[in-house]
């Protein structure tokens, strides 16, 4: 690579004048010499003459797009770090960028400080000859999102796919943890090998061990034959442990041995095998809290979260709702690809405690009610609320959301959180119980497991009739 004094520090490739201007100014204030190009073709020409030390590259450009141009940059200047910028990236954009060897991936609008930090790191790393080499790329879409938090998730999936590290995926029920695990597998080097999901919570605790590790004939009553475990079935590929918090303590020890020593011993056998398995795990629970409470092993927790990906709840990334709604609707009724504006407006207001799964179910139900006609907000009235299972599951989420909102509005620190929460939930509990026992205070007290005097006092306090 030709590198001389004409070389600028950073070549900014973007057709938006304002972006070039603000980046140039910020970089110049750090003493960096910059140049700009409004198209990939222009940038390639510039690179052919004198390669820069780093490239900031937009994806959407007039003519050749940024990702295609990366191949030319790699050929002309293989050791020049490229930082990809994109306004609205899909998972495949992030994966392609990282696979093609992008040093970093910035989602617009980004913080100028973040861009400066990334450029500095790129220049320092290139100086020490440490850039990772590119590999081949391919894309496959099913995980959607245009919000900034989802762009960050895409970036982390792309990074995780480049390695074999164990990944812990966290987020509330229905946010897409399963899809994220599949995407990491599919985009990684094991993509054409088995992906074996295990829903730990659905297995009885006594079965988890033999399901995962297998068993030999006669290992326990009912073990009439030798049986291969799921870990061995995933050999060469990926084992996805969904709801990993549910793993019983004894099996946690065996799992730790698998992660530390790559060893598997079937139940009842003295023979150890060494399958080549990548482990991905997911949970909607707060594993760190379970560690503090002593129900989940600390050493296993650290082994599982070598790399972590946290998927935010849908209510914290409402910008994704229209995209997801259109996607699900076109799956349900292929003739319709867009939700009307008034339905968008309605959906944007929903609490979506059950996250993307609940949104999908709500659209399915509404489409049934609409009977092939256009969807209207009324069609959702019953369904944009949590489902019955969802509402039981979602009570802790609702409490968290309530606390988050309260803290956002108030001077800190509060002094009466406990009483205030009770004041929110007790009247509803009392009213609903009384309604169901036809107003009998004695029966309500029985249902509540409280004595009658306590119930009377509470009814008086809240003015419940
Ligand atoms: N970003 C997304 N784009 C498209 N579909 C999504 C997305 N996120 C979730 N879904 C869909 O929502 C449903 C729930 O997703 P998934 O099963 O991956 O959630 P989860 O977090 O694993 O839930 P749980 O904790 O209950 O297992 C699936 O039908 C999935 O296809």
TrEMBL record:
InterPro entries, sorted: AAA+_ATPase, AAA_lid_NorR, CheY-like_superfamily, Homeodomain-like_sf, HTH_Fis, P-loop_NTPase, Sig_transdc_resp-reg_receiver, Sigma_54_int
Keyword Protease included in the entry's annotation: no
Cell compartment(s), UniProt: Cytoplasm
GO cellular component: cytoplasm
GO BP: phosphorelay signal transduction system; regulation of DNA-templated transcription
Domain annotation Response regulatory: ranges: 9-123
Pfam families named among the record's database cross-references: AAA_lid_14 (PF25601), HTH_8 (PF02954), Response_reg (PF00072), Sigma54_activat (PF00158)
A GO MF label: ATP binding
Entry keyword annotation includes Repressor: yes
Keyword tags: Activator, ATP-binding, Cytoplasm, DNA-binding, Nitrogen fixation, Nucleotide-binding, Phosphoprotein, Repressor, Transcription, Transcription regulation, Two-component regulatory system
CDD domains: AAA
Protein name: DNA-binding transcriptional regulator NtrC
């Amino acid at each position: 690579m030709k590198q001389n004094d004409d070389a600028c520090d950073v070549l900014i490739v973007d057709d938006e004048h304002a972006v070039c201007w603000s980046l140039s100014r910020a970089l110049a204030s750090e003493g960096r010499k910059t140049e700009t190009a409004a198209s990939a073709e222009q940038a390639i020409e510039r690179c052919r003459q004198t390669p820069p030390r780093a490239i900031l590259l937009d994806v959407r450009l007039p003519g050749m797009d940024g990702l295609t141009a990366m191949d030319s940059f790699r050929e002309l200047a293989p050791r020049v770090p490229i930082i990809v910028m994109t306004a609205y990236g899909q998972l495949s954009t992030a994966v392609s960028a990282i696979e093609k060897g992008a040093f970093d991936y910035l989602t617009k609008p980004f913080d100028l400080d973040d861009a400066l930090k990334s450029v500095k790191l790129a220049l320092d790393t290139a100086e020490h000859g440490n850039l990772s080499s590119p590999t081949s790329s391919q894309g496959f879409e099913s995980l959607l999102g245009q919000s900034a938090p989802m762009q960050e998730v895409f970036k982390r999936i792309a990074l995780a796919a480049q390695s074999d590290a164990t990944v812990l995926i966290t987020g509330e029920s229905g946010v897409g943890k399963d899809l994220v695990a599949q995407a990491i597998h599919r985009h990684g080097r094991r993509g054409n090998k088995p992906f074996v999901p295990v829903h730990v919570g659905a297995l009885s605790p006594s079965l988890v061990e033999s399901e995962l590790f297998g068993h030999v004939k006669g290992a326990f009553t009912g073990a009439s034959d030798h049986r291969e475990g799921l870990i061995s079935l995933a050999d060469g590929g990926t084992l996805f442990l969904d709801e990993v918090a549910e793993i019983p303590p004894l099996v946690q020890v065996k799992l730790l041995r698998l992660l530390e020593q790559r060893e598997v011993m079937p139940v009842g056998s003295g023979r150890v095998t060494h399958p080549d398995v990548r482990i991905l795990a997911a949970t909607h629970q707060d594993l760190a809290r379970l560690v503090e409470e002593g129900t989940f092993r600390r050493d296993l927790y650290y082994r599982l979260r070598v790399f972590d990906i946290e998927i935010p709840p849908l209510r914290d990334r409402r910008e994704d709702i229209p995209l997801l709604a259109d996607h699900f609707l076109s799956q349900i009724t292929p003739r319709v690809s867009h939700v009307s504006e008034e339905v968008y407006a309605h959906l944007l207001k929903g609490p979506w405690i059950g996250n993307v799964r609940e949104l999908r179910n709500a659209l399915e139900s509404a489409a049934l009610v609409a009977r092939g006609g256009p969807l209207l907000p009324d069609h959702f009235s019953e369904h944009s609320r949590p489902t019955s299972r969802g509402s039981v599951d979602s009570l802790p989420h609702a409490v968290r959301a309530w606390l988050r909102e309260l803290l956002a509005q108030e001077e800190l620190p509060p002094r009466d959180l406990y009483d205030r929460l009770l004041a929110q939930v007790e009247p509803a509990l009392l009213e609903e119980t009384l309604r169901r026992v036809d107003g009998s205070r004695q029966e309500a007290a029985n249902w509540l497991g409280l004595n009658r005097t306590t119930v009377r006092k509470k009814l008086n306090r809240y003015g419940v009739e």
